[in-house]
Amino acid sequence: MPADIIKEIFKVIPERDVSDAVFEGANIVLYTKDRELFLNDRGLVRKAVNSIKKRVELRSDPSLCIDQERAEEIIKGIVDEEAGIDQIIFDPQRSQVIIEAEKPGVAIGKQGETLQEIKKQTYWVPIVKRKPAIRSQIIENIRAVLYQNSDYRRKFLHKTGERIYNGWQRERKEEWVRLTYLGGARQVGRSAILLQTPESRVLMDCGIDVTKDGSEAYPHLEAPEFDIQQLDAIIVSHAHVDHSGLVPYLFKFGYRGPVYCTAPTRDIMALLQLDTVKIAHGEGRDPLYTAEEVKEMVKHTITLDYEEVTDITPDIRITMYNAGHILGSAMVHLHIGNGLHNLLYSGDIKFAKTQLLSPAATSFPRLETLMIESTYGARDAILASPKEQDKLLADIITNTVKRGGKILMPTLGSGRGQEVIIIVEKLIREGRIPNIPVYIDGMVWDITAIYTAYPEFLNSTIRQQIFHRDNNPFLAENIKRVGSQKERKQIIEDEGSCVVLATSGMLVGGPSVEYLKHLADDKRHSLVFSCYQGEGSLGRRIQRGEREIAMHAGANRQEIMTINMEVQRIEISGHADRKELMSFIQRCNPRPKKVLINHGEPGRCTDLASSIHKQFRIETLAPRNLDAVRIR
């Protein structure tokens, strides 16, 4: 029974002192009406944690919390004005108060003394969150959904905990681990991998291949192994649509279990999913899911920090590690059974420091099987160094400005867009390119706002810049948001040179295609690709040399678009290239015994698998979609 673990806690903390004991996912929360115990637990909580090896939190019973209006006055009196409190939101059922501030460190106080004082005077449990440097509507909406559905969230989290602790410490006679590739095997796009044990069913990622039409765009959810009614949990490695775009679809068909990811991933994927719905409506198509299903997904999301260990089923424990790919991207380490097997699902990784992120982590407690991407897995897939990329981009921009042209850079909304902003801002600041406007259009701006809300996920260099508002590169004077169709038209018609960063990065819809239509036939302009171009995408076709493209121009009408503008490619990639992938495996500690290759074109998957086997003498496999692999 789930109550067994609570009984263990009551051996340490007397049951008479606890008014309620509930689960919040894998965390256990105790409520007390004893004021003295709440303010000073005398080490009992730590003792309970040591006993059961799970996270335990002690909160005051809601009946102890003072009136919200009075509590808000006290909080504003205690917290230094320098913290810049934006808003104070109360969650009465959980005895928590969320304080959103411009400077969280000031609000927390030295060694948390301000928070302690708030607890002492109000009996509320304070949680401090950062106010983004750039206002983010999606973050505000997500927080509103969570606050408004607090009662539902409490019940959902408790139910999740009951499932996790059902059969706590139960011995299991039969043990095995099986992976089924529902998508993303020998292809880039629609990543979805089902992990099965006798006890659990967990889906790792559920994406859409935006370069394909029809059923080829979506994972094989019709596979006999996949049963949505039996699904225990979904884990999302990162927010890109090819990894997270189909998650709300599962909620459309009744899934009501947890979705695990980092906080930035939750925010960015919700934004991209809502954009997917918007694009479908704009193209006159019925969307796969609605904004309501996205909202439902948000209600069921449990966010984790890097290196935070949590149980997600009775026999699976996960830890997320920095993947270095985009903000909040994670490699997912799964500890299965009682030491039975350790698996690392890398998602997408970057094993080099970038303008924004630290390299992917390489040290893990245990590791037997590694699942690794191969987007740039071929022998010849070696990316230029950052210095070379900077020089190439500076030359392209300078030469285009001399011709009186504009530079169009189609970019991924998350990751590459922000990298390019930082690079261009740095080139202007250092005087290496002319001081021209940099226009941000589409999802790039909204996601940039999310980046400013989570500086703790960025590398130390950029984090320090963001902490000091006057030096925040995302707020530089010449970086301007495009907020309307009218502004977009003005940029196109204006004679002056500029850089335009617009989604989508593969030219499969979005404002980047609009700019292209108007700029394509003028040889003064430049089109600069800065990210991977998926097979079948318009970007890939232009990159391969097509210069006359048939474009839809209304019902049953087509126009030929001629590409006269200069076409250049600069790889500012969030993916590890061939050298980095091999280096990552070499640096993995411990070294895996088996490597499964996915997320790459067929030749790149098999090429990387062969090289890893030859160099490291590790068993390798490059599965196909619908292959099932027993790893233990």
What does this structure look like?
With about 625 residues, this protein is α/β, with parallel strands linked by helices. The chain folds into four domains: about 1-65 and about 150-170, GMP Synthetase, Chain A, domain 3 (2-Layer Sandwich), CATH 3.30.300; about 65-130, 2-Layer Sandwich (GMP Synthetase, Chain A, domain 3); about 170-380 and about 575-630, Ribonuclease Z/Hydroxyacylglutathione hydrolase-like (Metallo-beta-lactamase, Chain A), CATH 3.60.15; about 385-570, 3-Layer(aba) Sandwich (Rossmann fold). Helices cover about 35% and strands about 20% of the residues. It has 21 helices and 28 strands. A seven-stranded mixed beta sheet has the order 12-11-10-9-8-7-28. A seven-stranded mixed beta sheet has the order 13-14-15-16-17-26-27. A six-stranded parallel beta sheet has the order 20-19-21-18-22-25, with helices on both faces. The longest helix is centred in the middle third of the chain and has 20 residues, at about 265-280. It is globular.
Features of the shown structure:
21% strand; 21 helices; 7-stranded mixed sheet; 4 domains; globular; Metallo-beta-lactamase, Chain A; GMP Synthetase, Chain A, domain 3; 632 residues; alpha/beta
Topology:
Blueprint: H1 3-10, E1 20-24, E2 27-32, H2 35-39, H3 44-52, E3 56-60, H4 68-78, E4 85-91, E5 96-101, H5 104-108, H6 113-122, E6 125-130, H7 137-148, H8 150-164, E7 178-183, E8 192-196, E9 201-204, E10 233-235, H9 241-244, H10 247-252, E11 259-261, H11 263-282, H12 291-299, E12 301-303, E13 309-313, E14 316-322, E15 330-336, E16 341-345, E17 369-373, H13 386-402, E18 407-410, H14 416-429, E19 438-441, H15 443-453, H16 460-467, E20 479-481, H17 485-493, E21 499-502, H18 511-519, E22 526-529, H19 538-543, E23 548-552, E24 558-562, E25 566-569, H20 578-587, E26 594-598, H21 602-616, E27 619-621, E28 628-630
Parallel strand pairs: 2-3, 5-6, 9-10, 10-11, 11-12, 16-17, 17-26, 18-21, 18-22, 19-20, 19-21, 22-25, 26-27
Antiparallel strand pairs: 1-2, 4-5, 7-8, 7-28, 8-9, 13-14, 14-15, 15-16, 23-24
